[in-house]
């Protein structure tokens, strides 16, 4: 009776083979060193070969040798040859004893891919199975494999040295080291580690609802209806909310917020934004074709800067930004490898913008770059000033004179608290200055759902209006926007509710007006409270908070504290803010993250906490500051 025919398995690469197609740099070599020198064959071909008289056995279940030969990979040729003899000896012995043929590597061989002991350690020869004639081949294979060199780890492709240097240069103080430290302290409090406080108060960022501000009911009603249209049949929702939800959904693909929109944004929402701007500016027309819906205002600002930056050397684009500034600007400038051109706000004059300072900055910048962009934040962040109409006219005239592209960051346009101040949009003032300006000065202005009375930061809704843009550049801008497909459609819907709120005579008007006035009234009260209490503390001076939602007080730091900061390799105001966090649990952002004149120190703190909590925060800052001065006097 003839011995049973050897069993064969598919010759495709086993799942545990770490080199499925070819030897890989850094591989342990086990797989490649065990490859058969014959070409890879199908299961049917293998069976035909096994039936041929005198056919050499094939180590099935193993791929043919790669381009480097039997020992290619990270093992050497000798290891490959020895391993081949071992496989061949095993196969011959099995067939001579009437045993089934080899069926591939044992399961333990999978560990070889991880750089384990290798074949010699994982697959020891079986003397009883191999017989005396095969012992020498097995021994030779084992000896060779034992001296196989250890696999070395391949170097990382992406390291701090090889990464994009522009990204490495980006800094964003609002979520920088001080905020990371606050997160660590919160985890310690959760684990029961004792601190001189029971909670971390994150006063570092303008996140209204995180600080306890309640959402505007009408906005959330429309968003709920848009998100779950079945609610349109519910009597619990007012008809004016349903009307707006239906209009938004009808303009969406498939009548769903889950669909993509046009890259520039949903058409009917852009129309509503244009109508809002016209109302706000007293009849100055706005064209929906000049409206671009964005993922918050930040997305619009970075997109416009991306299309503005060009040139190299002395012709590289210079971007003029206020100091103190919102760190988004310096971050995007670094990312784009543009040139930052600082102009300083006048702290002694309530952070006013002085055109003579603009002239100084632009003339000095012309020696090393091409100043092309002028950024204005009004109302100011972090400084809280509101620019007068006269100031805005001077800035527009300066931009016209110097041929600068204007960026007007107006996300705090609803946040004006001082009775002596009023928000004036750059768009309105530009048009009222006459056609010489209104037809020539290029202007991009920005708004958002995140600030104002809405505080809907998480929806990431926003828009930009860009006027006097060259027609060919408009096409390039749309192309650039199309790369990211579209802004979140839910954020677009939220923006629509901001620019298209209930009006007199509609069912929701009274409640909406009451909630809006309550939010803005509380912010005005907290702005005054913060200014007054800070100015009662020796060594702290705070300018009037005319608008926005932050205080940016100037703080006195003694010489010994400056020296201690240097010993810790910190900026003095970072040292101050870190100590404030560690001793009180209050998280604020050092002024060095926003920029400040040499030798002055500040921090930015939001005024968003509820009134009673804000009083507690201010009292803790007062006590800390007095103790800090005594300690380092």
TrEMBL record:
<feature type="region of interest" description="Disordered">
    <location>
        <begin position="1"/>
        <end position="77"/>
    </location>
</feature>
<dbReference type="InterPro" id="IPR004839">
    <property type="entry name" value="Aminotransferase_I/II_large"/>
</dbReference>
<feature type="domain" description="Aminotransferase class I/classII large">
    <location>
        <begin position="221"/>
        <end position="620"/>
    </location>
</feature>
<keyword id="KW-0032">Aminotransferase</keyword>
<keyword id="KW-0663">Pyridoxal phosphate</keyword>
<keyword id="KW-0808">Transferase</keyword>
<dbReference type="InterPro" id="IPR015421">
    <property type="entry name" value="PyrdxlP-dep_Trfase_major"/>
</dbReference>
<comment type="subunit">
    <text>Homodimer.</text>
</comment>
<dbReference type="InterPro" id="IPR015422">
    <property type="entry name" value="PyrdxlP-dep_Trfase_small"/>
</dbReference>
<dbReference type="GO" id="GO:0042853">
    <property type="term" value="P:L-alanine catabolic process"/>
</dbReference>
<comment type="function">
    <text>Catalyzes the reversible transamination between alanine and 2-oxoglutarate to form pyruvate and glutamate.</text>
</comment>
<dbReference type="GO" id="GO:0030170">
    <property type="term" value="F:pyridoxal phosphate binding"/>
</dbReference>
<comment type="pathway">
    <text>Amino-acid degradation; L-alanine degradation via transaminase pathway; pyruvate from L-alanine: step 1/1.</text>
</comment>
<dbReference type="InterPro" id="IPR015424">
    <property type="entry name" value="PyrdxlP-dep_Trfase"/>
</dbReference>
<dbReference type="Pfam" id="PF00155">
    <property type="entry name" value="Aminotran_1_2"/>
</dbReference>
<comment type="similarity">
    <text>Belongs to the class-I pyridoxal-phosphate-dependent aminotransferase family. Alanine aminotransferase subfamily.</text>
</comment>
<dbReference type="InterPro" id="IPR045088">
    <property type="entry name" value="ALAT1/2-like"/>
</dbReference>
<feature type="compositionally biased region" description="Basic residues">
    <location>
        <begin position="1"/>
        <end position="10"/>
    </location>
</feature>
<dbReference type="GO" id="GO:0005737">
    <property type="term" value="C:cytoplasm"/>
</dbReference>
<dbReference type="GO" id="GO:0004021">
    <property type="term" value="F:L-alanine:2-oxoglutarate aminotransferase activity"/>
</dbReference>
<protein>
    <recommendedName>
        <fullName>alanine transaminase</fullName>
        <ecNumber>2.6.1.2</ecNumber>
    </recommendedName>
</protein>
<feature type="compositionally biased region" description="Polar residues">
    <location>
        <begin position="31"/>
        <end position="44"/>
    </location>
</feature>
């Amino acid at each position: 009776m003839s011995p049973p025919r050897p069993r064969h398995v598919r010759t495709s690469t086993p799942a545990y083979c770490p080199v499925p197609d070819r030897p890989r740099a850094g591989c342990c070599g086990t797989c490649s060193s065990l490859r058969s020198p014959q070409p890879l064959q199908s299961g049917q071909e293998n069976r035909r070969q096994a039936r041929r008289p005198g056919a050499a056995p094939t180590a099935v279940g193993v791929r043919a040798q790669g381009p480097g030969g039997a020992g290619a990979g990270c093992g050497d040729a000798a290891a490959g040859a020895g391993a081949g003899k071992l496989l061949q000896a095993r196969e011959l012995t099995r067939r001579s004893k009437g045993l089934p043929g080899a069926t591939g590597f044992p399961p333990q061989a999978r560990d070889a891919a991880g750089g384990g002991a290798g074949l010699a350690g994982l697959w020891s020869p079986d003397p009883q199975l191999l017989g005396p004639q095969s012992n020498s081949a097995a021994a030779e294979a084992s000896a060779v494999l034992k001296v196989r060199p250890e696999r070395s780890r391949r170097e990382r492709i992406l390291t701090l040295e090889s990464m994009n240097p522009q990204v490495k240069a980006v800094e964003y103080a609002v979520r920088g080291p001080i905020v990371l430290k606050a997160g660590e302290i919160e985890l310690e409090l959760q684990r029961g580690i004792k601190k001189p406080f029971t909670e971390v108060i994150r006063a570092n960022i303008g996140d209204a609802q995180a600080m306890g501000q309640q959402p505007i009911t009408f906005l959330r009603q429309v968003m709920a209806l848009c998100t779950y249209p079945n609610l349109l049949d519910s009597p619990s929702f007012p008809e004016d909310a349903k009307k707006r939800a239906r209009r938004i959904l009808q303009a969406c693909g498939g009548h769903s917020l889950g669909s993509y929109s046009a890259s520039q944004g949903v058409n009917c929402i852009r129309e509503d934004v244009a109508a809002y701007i016209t109302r706000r500016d007293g009849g100055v027309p706005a064209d929906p074709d000049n409206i671009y819906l964005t993922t918050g205002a930040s997305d619009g600002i970075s997109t416009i800067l991306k299309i503005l930056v060009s040139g190299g050397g002395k012709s590289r684009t210079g971007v003029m930004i206020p100091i103190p500034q919102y760190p988004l600007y310096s971050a995007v400038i670094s990312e784009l490898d543009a040139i930052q051109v600082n102009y300083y706000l006048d702290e002694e004059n309530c952070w006013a913008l002085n055109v003579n300072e603009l002239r100084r900055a632009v003339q000095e910048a012309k020696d090393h770059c091409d100043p092309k962009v002028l950024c204005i934040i009004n109302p100011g962040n972090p400084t809280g000033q509101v620019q007068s109409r006269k100031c805005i006219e001077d800035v527009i005239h300066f931009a016209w004179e110097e041929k600068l592209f204007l960026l007007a960051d107006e996300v705090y346009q609803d946040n004006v608290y001082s009775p002596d101040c009023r928000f004036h949009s750059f768009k309105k003032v530009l048009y009222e200055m006459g056609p010489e300006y209104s037809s020539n000065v290029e202007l991009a202005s920005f708004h958002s759902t995140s600030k104002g009375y809405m505080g809907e930061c998480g929806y990431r809704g926003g828009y930009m209006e860009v006027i006097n843009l060259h027609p060919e550049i408009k096409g390039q801008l749309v192309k650039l926007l199309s790369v990211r497909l579209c802004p979140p459609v839910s954020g677009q819907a939220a923006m629509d509710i901001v620019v298209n709120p209930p009006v007199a005579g509609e069912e929701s008007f009274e409640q909406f007006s009451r909630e809006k006035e309550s939010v803005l009234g509380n912010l005005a009260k907290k702005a005054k409270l913060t200014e007054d209490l800070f100015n009662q503390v020796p060594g702290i001076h705070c300018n009037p908070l005319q608008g926005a939602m932050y205080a940016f007080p100037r703080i006195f730091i003694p010489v010994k504290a400056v020296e201690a900061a240097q010993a810790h390799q910190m900026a003095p105001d970072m040292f101050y803010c870190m100590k404030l966090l560690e001793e009180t649990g209050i998280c604020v952002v050092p002024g060095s993250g926003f920029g400040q004149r040499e030798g002055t120190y500040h921090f930015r703190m939001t005024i968003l906490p509820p009134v009673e909590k804000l009083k507690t925060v201010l009292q803790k800052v007062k006590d800390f500051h007095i103790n800090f001065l005594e300690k380092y006097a």
